[in-house]
Write a structure and sequence with these properties.
The complex is a heterodimer of chains A (about 170) and B (about 120). Chain A contains 8 helices and no strands. By secondary structure, chain A is mainly α. In chain B, helix 1 packs antiparallel against helix 2 and helix 2 packs antiparallel against helix 3. The interface between A and B is large, with 92 and 82 residues.
Chain lengths: ~170, ~120
């Protein structure tokens, strides 16, 4: 609960801060807090990925982009009343939606009674891997992981295509 | 409905609308991408928090435990994190290109230059 509150505070700092370097550093802190919260929520595999990819790689990518662009954000000309209104209305609708959801850690919630007992009970016998996350990711949903690598490959190809064109133009 | 029972949902929603607000209200393209990242990470919480069982352990099967948190959201979110960093990289590459073409990463200035270019033709 404390962690989540700290994350909310860091998010406010990100919204308010105009120096983009500071925003990137706050974003890294936010990712580490998120990784810690994920450990507390028993999602150890996700926490490791978030700490390395979210707090590590994303920060490096953002810093590299800042190096190539400008470091400060200009002050907006208009007062952001409409976006604030949109955000508050959507937030209110979502909070209204949570009233019908089961309380935190309710063992009778639908998420714990369907599908999962099958994986927890049979996956060790069927795949021989004790870590259920690994067996679902690599075995039961292997095609999904293949699709994911396709997405990463496409994004990498896109980045190379965008930045290579630039280098060629510089040569001319 | 209680404060302790629904607190995670509400923090998740706060993070979500904060990210949405940054994406809509801020003109700086790098800041917009960071806002998109916050929106995305709030979805991680939305998926994983309901899967937690108090007294449960991480879903690695062992004889000494019999209560495990739900592993399925973890799998989905692992995929989401990796795809998220791929889209971030692509977005930043586009921002760098925009900066070279317009010499600015502020949305307002880019739109001004675009309309000035149209009038000049």
């Amino acid at each position: 609960m404390t962690l989540l509150t700290m994350m909310a505070v860091v998010t406010v700092a990100i919204v308010a801060q105009r120096n983009l370097f500071a925003v990137v550093v706050f974003g890294s802190i936010y990712s580490f807090l998120m990784a810690t919260a994920l450990v507390a929520l028993d999602a150890v595999d996700v926490a490791m990925t978030e700490a390395s990819v979210g707090a590590g790689m994303s920060t490096v990518l953002l810093l590299a982009a800042l190096h190539l662009t400008r470091g400060d954000e200009v002050k907006p000309l208009r007062r952001p009343l409409l976006p604030m209104l949109v955000a508050v209305v959507i937030g209110a609708a979502l909070v209204y939606g949570t009233i019908g959801l089961p309380a935190f850690s309710d063992p009778q919630a639908a998420i714990h009674t369907h599908v999962v007992p099958r994986y927890l009970g049979d996956s060790l016998r069927e795949t021989g891997v004790p870590n259920v996350v690994t067996s679902v990711l690599a075995s039961y949903r292997g095609y999904d992981t293949l699709g994911e690598t396709t997405v990463v490959f496409t994004a990498g190809a896109g980045v190379i295509a965008l930045l290579r064109r630039r280098r060629r133009e510089k040569k001319k | 409905m209680s404060l302790a029972g629904h607190y995670t949902y509400w923090v998740t929603i706060f993070l979500m609308i904060a990210g949405l607000y940054i994406v809509i209200a801020r003109g700086n393209l790098v800041k917009k991408l960071i806002g998109l990242g916050i929106f995305q990470t709030s979805v991680y919480l939305l998926y994983i928090a309901p899967g937690k069982l108090i007294g449960g352990t991480a879903p690695i099967l062992a004889a000494t435990f019999n209560t495990y948190s739900n592993p399925l959201p973890h799998v989905l979110i692992l995929t989401a994190i990796v795809v998220g960093v791929a889209t971030l990289a692509l977005g930043l590459a586009i921002v760098v290109r925009i900066r070279e073409a317009y010499d600015s990463i502020e949305e307002d200035e880019i739109l001004d230059k675009d309309s000035a270019g149209d009038e000049g033709q």
